[in-house]
Amino acid sequence: MMQEDIKRASGSTPNQRPVRRVTQDVIKAAPLVSTKAKVDLEDTPQKEFNKPKKRRIFNRWSILFVVILIIISGAVSYYLLVYKKQNSALPYPLSKQTQGLLGFDIYYPDQNLLPDGYQINMNSFSYSDQTVIYSVSYGNGQKILFSIQSKPTDAQIAQFYAKNMPLRTTYTTPNGTATVGAINGRSVISLPTKTNAWILATAPGNINQDSFKQTVSAIKLSR
What's the count of helices (H) and strands (E) in the chain, helices before strands? Predict the structure, then answer.
């Protein structure tokens, strides 16, 4: 009986661990739990930091891919809408019989490339004495007259310039180097083409020179 009272007083039974000892065991185990939690907390920010970084890298590559795709699409569109259009041949303006008689190619301006207010007169083409003549209208009934003939030698063209166009300048066109000058008060542009034709364009002396040059630059080969 006395033994049981002592056990009650101590607050433990033979099968029960003392409260004080259990508390000490929990305190000893606590650092292990805290250390593990600390490791998890240290690892978590690094993991969370890496995820957005990977997404940012992915987004940069996506943007770069889209930019490259836009550039390629723009280049293809330019080729199809501008370059190909500018370099396509125009319809032949004369009969096939006349084409067989000529010893040179026929060039004339593409209407889509002419300055505003300038109009190619398709019904003005004529052929005589190995020369093709046609006109482009502009302004108040004014005209640019074009003549095409077989291209002379470089020496003959140089002699023509020296005799008729002592004051002259040059500029580059898609079909060759054009020479600008004046003959008898009229503006003149001479264009020996890259093939076998020589083009002379004459216009009133007061024509806008930039528009005149643009008109000659708009010339394309016909087939």
Answer: 6, 9
Beta-bridged to residue 150, according to DSSP, are 197
Cα gap 195→148, rounded to integer Å: 12
Supply the pLDDT for residue 80.
53
Listed in sequence order, the DSSP H helices in the chain are: 2-10, 19-78, 84-87, 96-101, 154-164, 209-217
**pLDDT score recorded for residue 62:** 75
Gap between the Cα atoms of 42 and 60, Å rounded: 29
- Supply 56's token pair: 């940012």
**DSSP string computed for 45-76:** HHHHHHHHHHHHHHHHHHHHHHHHHHHHHHHH
Question: What confidence score (pLDDT) does residue 194 get?
Answer: 96
pTM over 0.70: no
Give the pLDDT score at 70: 84
Specify the long-range contacts of residues 154-160, CB closer than 8 Å, at least 24 apart. 154/192, 157/190, 157/192, 157/198, 160/190
Express the helix, strand and coil content of the chain in percent, nearest 5 each. 50, 30, 25
**3 state SS of 186:** strand
Dist CA 107 CA 71 (whole Å): 34
Q: How far is CA 163 from the centre of its chain?
A: 44
Would you state the pLDDT for residue 89? 76
Residues in the chain predicted with pLDDT less than 70, given as ranges, are 1-58, 75-88
